[in-house]
Design a protein that fits this description.
This protein is α/β, with parallel strands linked by helices. It contains 13 helices and 14 strands. It has a 7-stranded mixed β-sheet with strand order 7-6-8-9-10-13-14, with helices on both faces. Strands 1-3-2-4-5 form a 5-stranded parallel β-sheet, sandwiched between helices. A two-stranded antiparallel ribbon has the order 11-12. The longest helix is centred in the N-terminal third of the chain and has 20 residues. It is globular.
Length: about 400
Amino acid sequence: MKRKLGLKVGAAAAGCTLALAGCGGGGGGDDTIVIGLVEDTSGPGAAYSQITSAAVRAAVDKVNEEGGVLGRQLEVVSDDDSSDPSRSPTVTRRIIGEGASVVMFTTGSGAVIANKSVMQEAEVPGLPVTSAATQVIEDPDADYMYLQAVTTAKQGEAFVGAFEAIDAEKIAILSDDTPTMAAYNEVLKDAIDEAGIEIVAEEEAATDAADVTAQLSRVEQAEPDAVLVSTVGGQIEVLYQNTANKVLPEDVQMFSLSSIGNQPQLWGQADSGALDGLVYVGAITDENPRTKEAREVMEAANDDDYVMTDYDAQAYSAVKMVANAIEETGSAEPADVHKALNSTSGFEAYYGLPDFTVSYTEDDHDGADGACGVVFTVFDGSEPSGAWDEYQPSC
């Protein structure tokens, strides 16, 4: 079941803003449990948010087909925040006002971080589906936020392992101008600096930039051993990859975040050879039998040309984990779901390597049990070909 909210803030929503702690009602009517979904359909994170949101809905449909949770159907109530940190809290309050038992976020990390105090005041658990931003679960106001993805800090350590595996001592970083990437890069650079790897160049461009030749020329002059493209994806990611292919020497290893691997619509926009050999932070491998299950569900819900992404698997895993928590506690009340999530231990995720699990305690909402939720994946030609042979993080 699905329901999208409009953009007009009505009297009911305004009332919930004034008395937020009383607005989380445990979800819908007697026959439904509301799963809130804050998504980006119109902003800089739309490319990945819409993939993830569609997967959340497909996973909810699958749970409902199998009888729902506690004999009730799950209902997705969603709204668009454009990944705008100034707008997102209003959107989230409105969704909480619809009686959400939990709110999932597929929007940008900057917007997610802006919602910490909202979830704290409302006492409703929040689950960013793909965000890895460590700031989401750092004090203050972090009691009701849960991360399931491998955090930025752990990803930073994984990148260090990858750089060291190829003897890369000098790194350049190419990024965009979004709040999401500003927050991500801050943590990532700390891990690189602590490892003694030199960052010899940092360049930035707008997400709608038409030319990044100047940025890549400066990177070339810095003579890095490897280049990390750290963007939200979309046009700017392809532009960086195409320009790097023209400007940088062939022996410079290109790395990227999950964005390029999880936006198949971008692959055809890349120049011939621009993606060949690119290594990105993936999260899926068919060595994980649960990933195979998620793949079957997603393939059944999509067209014949569907390509599964990490976002799909993470969305499927998030829905299954929340459904499991509600079943375990026997209640869809936000307070009970919060307690159940705090007791989640060794949940076998539907992404990552086979041994990857997610656990929470009352004092620790960094769910990833190790870095093996990351699967470094390499492009062969214009498509991902599988796990990178040079290095993989361990659990």
